[in-house]
Amino acid sequence: MEIRTGVQVGKDISLAEVKRDHQVVFIATGAHCGIRLGVEGEDIAGVIEGIRFLRAVNLGEKISVGKKVAVIGGGNTAIDCARTAKRIGGDDVRVVYRRSRDEMPASSVEVAEMEKEGVKIDFLTVPTRFLSENGGLSGIECIRMKLGKPDDRGRPRPVPIKGSEFTIPVDTVIDALGQVPETEFVQALGLSLGKMGTIEIDHKTGATNIEEVFAGGDVVTGPASVIEAIGAGKRVACSISRYMRGEPLEVEEEGLRPEKLSKKDIKDLKNRFPPQKQVEMGEEPIKERVGDFREVALGYTPSEAVTEALRCLAGQMEGCIECHECERRCDAKAIDYEMKDEIVDVEVGSIILATGYQQIDPSVIPQYGYGRYDNVITGLEFERLSDAAGPTGGQIQLKNGQPPKSVAIIHCVGSRDKNLHEYCSRVCCMYALKFAYLIKEKTNAEVYQMYIDMRCFGEGHEEFYERLSTEEDVKFIRGKPSQVTDRALTEEEKGKLIVTVEDTLLGRLIRVPADMVILCNALEPTVGAEKVARLFSIGRRTDGFFMERHVKLDPISTMNDGIFIAGCCEGPKDITDSVAQAKAAASEVLSLLTRGKVEIEPIIVSVDDEFCSGCGLCEKMCPYGALSLSESEGVMVVNQALCKGCGSCAVICPSEAISLSHFTRLQILGQVEALASQTKMPGKIWFL
Question: What is the pTM of this model?
Fold first, then answer.
């Protein structure tokens, strides 16, 4: 890309030359010429165009406006001129506008801010001529107006009131009636122009009447907003891209369709989401800001920004607002708003369960203050806070937007606790160390780790622990905190959270003041773990996680063949172990799929049709779903591939119609007789 500055097309180089040297030309020269009022005395020294005035001030040129300044116009440019004149020495600054406040095109917020700064507005007033004295500007002769019938745009026409003439003494007049584009340079090429000198285009494509020449922005529409100019540039860029590829310029693009709501829908929405007042933004004091060009609006604090953002209906809904924009933008057409939930039956040979985990809700431990104190957060909440894509852009901040000066990290919140979970969650120690490192790196705050035992298993983890404790000056306190409170006992503790903990190495109770407290929550089975276990006929341990076939020899298989488990659904583990287990489960599935046939246990049950009454008790008892009632014969049938030979059905059968292969009653009695014949000591034989 080559950018050439200081070149005026039409003066330094002609538009024809530009077109000759390039395949496509896009004209976006804006509207930089001011509109003249067209009254007597407009050429007197002291009358300046608004755009030229603003440009000169921004370029640092010295401009003297005197004490009395009048700005002619009612748009945003006029407001900018008036506020600028106030800042460079204008004492008595007024805006002269020919209609009433209701018709004023300027932003109402800008108008209100201008009036706060002491600028007056003369409504329904039109200059008729400029007065001079000693070769310089001395005043404006004006006439009062009244509103008449609407014009072509629907605005009421200003009508002069006879005999209402009056004079305003001024030192400077700034004409801010609007802008028009400077398009003399395009006439030699033969481009079609509109009444106001704007370039005429095909508004769908941005193409002009001359091939290979496109135009957009203020040079086409006249003065408009920045976002409208950006939109025009984007549309024309798409047209130029299609033109360069030899594709048709006109492409029908589906626009957004406004959603139609009934009166009932509107009423329901208003009841669910009542209107909230806009958060007032802080501003510089008026007396100070009118003396220079400092930023007037101070912006929102982080908490104010969140509050203001939550006023948005989409933010309150906390989800998709169904604007269909993603569906329209998706090239793969993978998004379908018309899709309905449906139940699909799929035949599979194996299933891998990887239902994961959830974190315990720390509010069940009320002494830690989660939910009561703003700056007591969970580990996952801190992860979100420190994420570069998070609400603070990765900056670690308190609720008030300030960085913390001290942070306490509490380990084993709900883990290794006889009242909640007795097991270790395994990952807490390492992510707590990571948190400490991030806090030190981003805020250099004091970090306190409060732990029962540090369990830093894994490659390089022990070394990381050693580095934090020695090089990074993270303070480790061996002991489980008993309470987090905001009750200060000393001057140092005021305004902080106080963590009460017994340091078992020192053998005494200590109080640690902190700005932020991070809770390392226990990992626990998901809410639906019990339902999933019943659905797939697999066992669960006393801690609620899924049970493996063998903890060492077969840690990914279950007692139900073809059902495998991977990840934290089997127990708390880190990402490394979860990935390894997932790969192992995938390997087992592939092994089953490539065999063609599999071996099953020889010890299964069989049903004697003569004795079976079809009562169905065995079917209810079977944990593997291996028994079902044959409707044609009225007896139970065994699926030998599903049966695991546990014998629970044989025990419950009232007709004694079910027997276990290799463990029939006759075989068991034979074993008893054999054992009894080999022993000379009377007594009982126990089968364990």
Answer: 0.51
